[in-house]
Amino acid sequence: MEIIKTGVAGTLESCDASVSVEEHGLLELVIESADSRFAPRVREAALAALAELGVRAARVTVREKSALDCTIRARVMTACLRAAGLEKAPWEALK
Amino acid sequence: MKAKDGGGRTLPETIAGFGKVAAFAGAWASAANRGAPRKLLSAGRPSKLLGSIDEAIRRSGLESGMTVSFHHHFREGDLVVNLVMDAIARAGIRDLTIAPSSLTNVHAPLVEHCRRGVIKRIYTSGLRGELAEQVSRGLLEAPVVIHSHGGRSRAIREGTIRPDVAFLGVPSCDRAGNARGWSGESACGSLGYAMVDARHACSVVLLTDFLEDYPAIPASIGQELVDWVVQVDRVGDPAGISKGATRLPKDPRELLIARRAVQAIDAAGVIRDGFSFQTGSGGSSLAAVRFLRELMLERGVKASFALGGITSQTARMLEEGLVGALLDVQSFDSDAARSLAANSRHYEIDATCYADPHAAGCAVDQLDVVVLSALEIDMAFNVNVITGSDGVIRGASGGHSDTAAGSGLAVVVAPLVRGRTASVVDRVETIVTPGESVDLVVTDYGLAVNPRRADLAAALRKGGLEVLEIGELREIAERITGVPEPVEHGNRIVGVVEYRDGTVIDLIRDVRA
Q1: Which of residues 474 through 513 in chain B touch A, CB cutoff 8 A?
Q2: Which end of chain A is more exposed for a tag (fewer CB within 10 A), N or C?
Q3: Which neighbouring-strand residues pair with B389?
């Protein structure tokens, strides 16, 4: 999936994540966690979502407020779709 | 006046069959020179009114190194602690031990007093907000001592905590110091914790924003215990009194947990005529009252008394005749305060009568069932209500361990997962209530019974409820949240958690991250 503009998704409400995806030469992932003890889990979840969509170059910022993995995945994917200018999710490609 | 010349008569130094003679030396002489722990600073004065807090501090005899105490009946609306501590700092007094019954979010300004050496040591039931955050990071050299409400009464009566001056905010009092909590603009209801301080402190200063005509009786704190009275603009913010821990439950998850808890209590056979209950603060335990009431109406069952921690809901049950009496050590909202003023079967009790383990009997021992909240519960059913899963202090011991020990059935309710934090864990961050006092854990994913209570598990199963192992609840939680990295603690002890009998049940160490 190719990132062509800035896409954002999510909120900073408790249990949610705010994700922004921008054009960038390589893949850069910044995690800001409300609870740093879960930061490694959040990173894993975000990387898995990016890999699933085939995003290889982008600057991705995840600011999360104790969101669960499923929420991280949903917000990252939506932000990527918007940043790629796609209207619909490539459902067939998703696990 | 000469000692032997009391009242103008010449008296012998001793009298056979009587003993040593302490001769009369003036109407107030013995009060001033007694050397007894209780100072009588204003005995004989028609009015104890002083013009300012600063003057009260001067005339209370407060010196550096002493202990001052407060109460937390104004909860998040308390204005007294900050007012008094600011005045104490202005007077240049330092190295104080402060012993409030508890502290809340509004007490963040105490951080500065700790930094400047005005406060050296803290005894409290709880800590929240900025002060708790800083204490957790090593603000004070001496560890904070966390006690339960019953444990505090015990410590004060036994002299472990000896308040030199109690500064007690009261919603109303007269010039002689007859004080009560249920009238005035800042009405907070029961003064149950403050009554202990008034009885055992070396001197007592009342602060009020509503001066009544003498005699303001019946009084919760009688004039015989009070040295000085200071009128201030405001002692409490009514909006803050019912804020925080007692928000009204609307969350469907909390309602679900509450309904399950009441089903389990019912299956345990507790809900019959004449039973008694207490519910703690926190959404699910407050919500449990609602379902309990519905069930009692449906069955035509009446409770003999409710204890606590009284809320508008329990006050309503008293008025409906569903509960025979309310024993109120602390009113959680303004409706409860109104009920205390209006209902003759709504009784104010002090913390000694409520939960003191070394008193000759206390009300918690009479409880059939208590519903309590928790931050964490572990595999041994130990409960943490004082530190977050990140190791930072953010709660209060309160009456948790007192009621769990005293009641016939101790039910702990909690959502299995909060945000990304599991409530059922391998090992709680800090033990406040030992697992041996906890009978039943109810979560939104199911309930677990302490293996010590095989009878209870059997009763619940017979009542058609599914009983899980506590380990199963932990596994479900872990599947949802994943396993966090461990908390990074330092080596410094920032808190000592006392069990209600004064023994140490756990330690809180500083957090680094």
Answers
A1: 480-487, 513
A2: C
A3: none
Cβ contacts of B419 on chain A, cutoff 8 Å: 14-15, 34-35, 65-66
> Taking the C-alpha atoms of B489, B490, B494 and B497 in order, what is their torsion angle to the nearest 10 degrees?
50
A83 close to A6: Cβ distance less than 8 angstroms: yes
Write down the pLDDT at residue B19.
86
Distances, alpha carbon B63 to alpha carbons B195, B466, B479, in Å: 23, 60, 56
pLDDT at B6: 54
| Model-level ipTM above the cut of 0.90 | no
Q: What angle do CA B367, B349, B345 make, to 5 degrees?
A: 80
Separation of alpha carbons B428 and B434, rounded Å: 11
Residue B143 has a pLDDT of: 96
Cα gap B457→B448, rounded to integer Å: 8
CATH topology of domain B41-97+155-241: Glutaconate Coenzyme A-transferase (3.40.1080)
**Can you say how many angstroms the Cα of residue B402 is from the centroid of all Cα atoms in its chain?**
11
Task: Write down the CATH superfamily of domain B252-487.
Answer: Glutaconate Coenzyme A-transferase (3.40.1080.10)
Would you list the domain boundaries of chain B?
1-32, 41-97+155-241, 252-487
Q: Phi first, then psi: what are they for B265, rounded to 5°? A: -60, -40
Give B218's contacts (C-beta < 8 A, 6+ positions apart).
B180
CATH architecture of A7-86: 2-Layer Sandwich (3.30)
| B116 vs A: CB within 8 A | no
Of B419, B486, B513, the CB nearest to A66: B419
B468/chain A closest Cα distance in angstroms: 24
On average, the pLDDT of chain A sits at 93
- Which chain A residues are Cβ-neighbours of B513 within 8 angstroms? 36-37
CA B327 to CA B340: how far, in whole Å?
10
Q: What's the distance, CA B118 to chain centroid? A: 24
CB B397 within 8 A of CB B146: yes
The residue type of B432 is V
**Segments making up each domain of chain A, as ranges:** 7-86
Report residues of chain B scoring pLDDT below 70: 1-7, 27-37, 243-248, 513
pLDDT at B443: 98
For residue B485, give the nearest of A14, A40, A66 by CB distance: A40
3-state secondary structure B375-416: CEEECCCCEECCECCCCCECEECCCHHHHHHHCCEEEEECCC
**Cβ contacts of residue B41 below 8 Å, gap of 6+?**
B59, B60, B61, B203, B227, B228
Query: What pLDDT does residue B286 have?
Result: 85
Task: Give the whole-angstrom CA distance, residue B169 versus residue B79.
Answer: 8
Do A65 and B481 lie within an 8 Å CB cutoff? Answer: no
Chain A residues with at least one Cβ partner in B under 8 Å: 14-15, 34-41, 65-69
- Ordered DSSP codes for B47-68: --EES-HHHHHHHTT--TT-EE
Same-fold call for B41-97+155-241 versus B252-487: yes
**pLDDT at residue B28, as a whole number:** 63
B97-116 tens-digit pLDDT: 999 999 999 999 999 999 99
